[in-house]
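Record type: monomer structure entry
Structure origin: computed from sequence
Chain ID: A
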Amino acid sequence: MPARLRLAGGTVHIPPGLNEPAPSPRRRLLKQVFWFAVLHFAVLKVVEGIIFFASHVPPKAVNLDGVIAIIVYIEDGLVFPRWLVLKLWPWETTPAGLGLALTIFNSAVWGAALAGLRNFWRKATA
């Protein structure tokens, strides 16, 4: 039920949400980390798709080897945390769920880094 404020001329209705407390900074940071992680995952999938389609263009039509090499370097940077943790795995084969777990971990690391960088930038320029 919306809150009411009585003034001399009548009653003013306050919409719900205006009288609620602001979210905590920790919750705000977790939201930022989540959305940056989702953004990182989407960008990673777009880069992988570009590599896939560019590698299927016949070299006689258009030679895209240089472009593909540059995009692969970008992809290597985007998956570096995943690669680093995967190198710590001591066996040659990995369990079935490890790939998914490492993908989530990779995006979460990048999400945390980007959210921290964003918050640092806001404080530095304020």
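Annotation 1: Strands lie at 3-7, 10-14.
Annotation 2: The chain has a mean pLDDT of 86.
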